[in-house]
Amino acid sequence: MIFLRYILYPIVPIYYLVTWLRNKLYDLGIKKSISHKTPVICVGNLSVGGTGKTPMIEYLIHLLKEDYLVATLSRGYKRKTKGFQLANKDATAESIGDEPFQFYNKFKKNILVAVDGDRNNGIKQLQLIDNLPEVILLDDAFQHRKVKAGFNILLTTYSNPYFKDIVLPTGNLREPRSGSKRANIIMVTKCPKDLSDAEKNTILQKINPETNQHVFFSSISYSNSVISSNTNKPIDDLNDFTLVTGIANAFPLVSFLKEKGLKFDHLNFKDHHEFSEQDILELNKRDLIVTTEKDFMRLKQYKSLRDKLFYLPISIVINDEVKINKLIIDFLMHNAGL
C-alpha cells in the first residue's frame, strides 16, 4: 500500500490543484457557501484517518447541553439508510452509523442526533422540527464548504500533524495545508500528557497561526473501568482478554493497556469495520473482549457476546479548558443574541 502511494506521487500536484481551486472558488464567492440562522460549529480535519473528532464532539456536548438544545449532524458513514435520519428509539449503528449511534446512546435525553450526506439539507430538516436546536455540531465537515459554519475547530494529531504532510494520494491530506486558515481553533490531539512547553512552542511556530486563530493541545484520558451492557469492571482486574479495534489508529489504546501491564491479544480491524458472521464466530470463542466505545455500538447487538463484551470509555483533556470554553460560549452568545 505504501509502495502504491509513492507510485501515485505524480498525481499529487493534480489533486493539490483541484482542491486548491475548489477552495479558491468558495473563498471568492463563485461557489456558494450557505449560512444558517442556527449557530453551526464544525469539527473536522485536513487529513484522512482518526484525529479524535468523536471525543471532541462529546466534549462540546458536555459543555453545551445544560444551557442549549444541541443537535449533532453527521453523514452517517457506512449506514444502510439514505437521506436525512433523525435518531429515535429504533436507531441502530446500521441505520445512522456507529459514531452518531454512540452520541445517541450516551446523550439521547439531552440532544438531537441526525445524519445526512447533504449537510445543508440536514440543517434545514433540523430547523423544521418542533424541538428546534439552538446549536448544531457538524461532525467531520471541514471540507463540506457548501455549509458556511460560524465556528470551525480543526483537529490534527501530535504524531502526524498536517504541517508535515502532503495531499492525497501519497500523503493523507484531503486538501492543501492552507485550508487550515479557515479554522477558528486548531487543536493538536493525542499529545503526550507530559508535553513540555518548549515542544508546544515548537509546534506553535510550525503551525504559525493567524492572529485570529487559537491553538490548543489535548491528550486522551482513559477510564479506570470498562463497561458492558449491564455492569462495570475495574480495568486493573482484567486478565488475559482480547482487544478488538476497528478504528483508524489503535496505537494509543494498545500502548495504554501495555503500560498497565495487562495481558491481551489484539484483533485489529480497519476503521468502521463491518463485522461478518465469521468475525462473530471467532469472537464467540473468546472469554473476555474489550473494545472501543465505537466498536461496542456495532457489536452489542449480538446476544452471544453480551456477557463478555466491554468497552473502555475515553475523554479528552485540553490544556486550557477555560479559554476554549469561553471562545465557544462567546461565539454562541454573539450569534444567538443571548
Automatic annotation (TrEMBL):
The UniProt keyword set, sorted, is: ATP-binding, Kinase, Lipid A biosynthesis, Lipid biosynthesis, Lipid metabolism, Nucleotide-binding, Transferase
Q: Which GO terms describe its cellular component?
A: plasma membrane
Pfam families associated with the record? LpxK
Q: Which residues bind ATP?
A: S47, V48, G49, G50, T51, G52, K53, T54
Record-linked HAMAP family: LpxK (MF_00409)
Q: Which reaction does it catalyse?
A: a lipid A disaccharide + ATP = a lipid IVA + ADP + H(+)
State the encoding gene.
lpxK
Annotated metabolic or biological route of this protein: Glycolipid biosynthesis; lipid IV(A) biosynthesis; lipid IV(A) from (3R)-3-hydroxytetradecanoyl-[acyl-carrier-protein] and UDP-N-acetyl-alpha-D-glucosamine: step 6/6
Family under the similarity heading: Belongs to the LpxK family.
Protein name (Swiss-Prot/TrEMBL): Tetraacyldisaccharide 4'-kinase
Q: According to the UniProt entry, what is the EC number of this protein?
A: 2.7.1.130
Q: Name one GO molecular function term.
A: lipid-A 4'-kinase activity
Its source organism is Flavivirga rizhaonensis
What the protein does comes down to: Transfers the gamma-phosphate of ATP to the 4'-position of a tetraacyldisaccharide 1-phosphate intermediate (termed DS-1-P) to form tetraacyldisaccharide 1,4'-bis-phosphate (lipid IVA).
UniProt-listed SUPFAM superfamilies: P-loop containing nucleoside triphosphate hydrolases
